[in-house]
């Protein structure tokens, strides 16, 4: 077994009222596909060609999916899986209604997998960055990127954790006049997604502005108790 440590990042527990209460999430190293598994098997000394290994793995995946969909249980060295149906039935002869019932797959680790996990080593990296991140700003009227903005027109803001949500009165998108230091709130949101905002700009005087996003949105679509803010690293200009 590999001796590499599994890295963990800590996130604020917004459900708890206790101070310094966090939960951990794994910082994943990457994603392993059947193609990667084939390479690893060859590196271990498998005599099969890569194409043959991928074909076998793909067939295994397909057969497992088909048999699960037919009502079989699946037991492998890695996991055990079966179907379950959630919802209320009114009569013994009732049928499954997609609007009222949910068909789900249940997975559980095998004893061997659980024993392997007890040998894993973990390292806490510290607090994760849950603040919004502004990566790019586009004026949709002129297509200017990260520079010119047009008053009264739509500004596209791209990044991470940008969704404008929360009860705090400070939540919103602001343009800060670098000459007067006035904070001007953009009051109309046309698009509001975690990775992209579409904002109708207010009437602005000519000058240099700093863009700021304030929200209570955090990881996994949860809300935090305090406002998180991010400022764009480049100034924006109105001619």
From TrEMBL:
Residues 134-226 form the DUF4469 domain. Residues 7-126 form the Bvu-2165-like IHF-HU-like DNA-binding domain. It comes from the Bacteria. InterPro entries: Bvu_2165-like_IHF-HU-DNA_bdg (IPR049893), DUF4469 (IPR027824). Transmembrane segments: none annotated. This is Uncharacterized protein. It comes from Marinifilum breve.
């Amino acid at each position: 077994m590999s001796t590499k440590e599994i890295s963990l990042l800590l996130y604020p527990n917004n459900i708890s009222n206790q101070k310094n209460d966090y939960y951990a999430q794994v910082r994943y190293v990457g994603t392993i596909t059947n193609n990667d598994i084939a390479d690893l098997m060859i590196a271990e000394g498998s005599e099969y060609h890569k194409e043959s290994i991928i074909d076998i793995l793909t067939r295994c995946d397909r057969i497992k999916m088909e048999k699960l969909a037919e009502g079989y249980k699946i037991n492998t060295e890695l996991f055990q899986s079966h179907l379950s149906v959630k919802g209320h039935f009114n009569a013994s002869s009732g049928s499954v209604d997609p609007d009222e019932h949910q068909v789900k797959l249940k997975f559980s680790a095998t004893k061997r997998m659980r024993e392997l996990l007890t040998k894993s080593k973990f390292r806490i990296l510290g607090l994760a960055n849950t603040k919004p991140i502004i990566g790019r700003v586009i004026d949709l009227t002129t297509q200017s990127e990260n520079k010119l903005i047009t008053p009264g027109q739509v500004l596209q803001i791209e990044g991470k954790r940008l969704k404008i949500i929360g009860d705090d009165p400070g939540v919103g998108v602001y343009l800060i006049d670098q000459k007067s230091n006035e904070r001007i709130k953009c009051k109309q949101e046309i698009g509001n997604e975690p990775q992209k905002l579409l904002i109708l700009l207010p009437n602005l005087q000519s000058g240099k502005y700093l863009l700021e996003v304030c929200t209570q949105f955090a990881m996994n679509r949860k809300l935090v108790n305090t406002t998180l803010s991010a400022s764009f690293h480049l100034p924006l200009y109105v001619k």
